[in-house]
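Below is a filled-in request sheet from our internal design queue. Each sheet records the structural input a requester submitted and the sequence that came back. We keep these sheets so that new team members can see what a complete request looks like end to end.

REQUESTER: design group, bay 2
PRIORITY: normal
MODE: inverse folding
CHAIN LENGTH: 216
BACKBONE (tokenized):
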């Protein structure tokens, strides 16, 4: 993937949108677009997770399904692309965000500034992530929250252990994050409509492949 600096710009800013995307929904897409605009990002690369350490592999859908749904959802936005870097890792190997960030850090020109975008609840756990100090030094974090999320939670939890990390974590409230992947999976399993929660192509993909029919 080659990226060129646009005329007059001294630094490229890239957002890495990390998540399970099981399935991807409008909340994720609105988040990525809002962050792109607010932070002046040149591109947002969606990175469907491989096998993150906090989840059993059987808890999530097949990586190929999650990748394809992410491609379908992002196809109409010229600033969005999708990376296979995590899902192509062997399924029995855990995928750590530090390895993903190092991959992009090494891959791009050194003038590229990286932002890792994900849910605030995930970032709340960042001090338990592998090599979190290095992570916080080579990348900025954007934590997307649902309305009503207690923002001080991040400050209290992370600030108590690592106050300097807070300057590198930006919090953004996104009303559309009221939609959640869990909610969509539950509705499918109950035979309810999921129209307008994800792009139509993703909804059709879910129905065609009979995903989430047997959720508890
Ligand atoms: P999760 O625990 O399934 O999700 C936590 C919350 O964040 C959920 O409410 C989720 O909503 C939301 N969320 C997830 N991705 C989001 C995104 N891109 N934008 C906005 N909200 C998002 O989290 P996860 O998806 O498994 O993990 C998030 C990212 O953190 C992944 O890239 C994962 O690899 C990384 N991670 C790394 C480590 C590590 O390196 N040690 C550990 C844990 C997580 P939805 O369910 O609606 O998406």
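RETURNED SEQUENCE:
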């Amino acid at each position: 993937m080659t990226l060129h600096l646009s005329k007059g710009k001294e630094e490229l800013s890239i957002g890495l949108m990390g998540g399970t995307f099981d399935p991807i929904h409008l909340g994720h897409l609105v988040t990525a677009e809002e962050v792109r605009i607010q932070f002046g990002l040149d591109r947002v690369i969606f990175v469907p997770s491989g096998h993150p350490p906090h989840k059993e592999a059987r808890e999530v859908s097949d990586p190929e399904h999650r990748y394809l749904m992410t491609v379908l959802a992002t196809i109409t936005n010229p600033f969005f692309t999708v990376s296979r870097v995590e899902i192509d890792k062997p399924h029995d190997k855990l995928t750590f965000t530090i390895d993903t960030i190092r991959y992009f850090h090494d891959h791009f020109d050194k003038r590229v500034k990286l932002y890792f975008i994900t849910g605030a609840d995930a970032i709340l756990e960042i001090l338990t992530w592998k090599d979190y100090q290095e992570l916080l030094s080579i990348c900025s974090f954007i934590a997307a929250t649902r309305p009503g999320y207690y923002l001080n939670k991040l400050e209290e939890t992370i600030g108590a252990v690592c106050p300097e990390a807070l300057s590198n974590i930006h919090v953004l409230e996104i009303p559309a994050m009221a939609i959640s992947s869990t909610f969509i999976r539950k509705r499918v399993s109950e035979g309810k409509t999921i129209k307008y929660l994800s792009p139509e192509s993703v909804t059709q993909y879910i129905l065609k492949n009979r995903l989430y029919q047997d959720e508890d």
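SHEET NOTES:
- Residues 12-177 form a domain with the Rossmann fold fold (CATH 3.40.50.620).
- The CA atoms of residues 158 and 164 lie 9 Å apart.
FILED BY: M.R.
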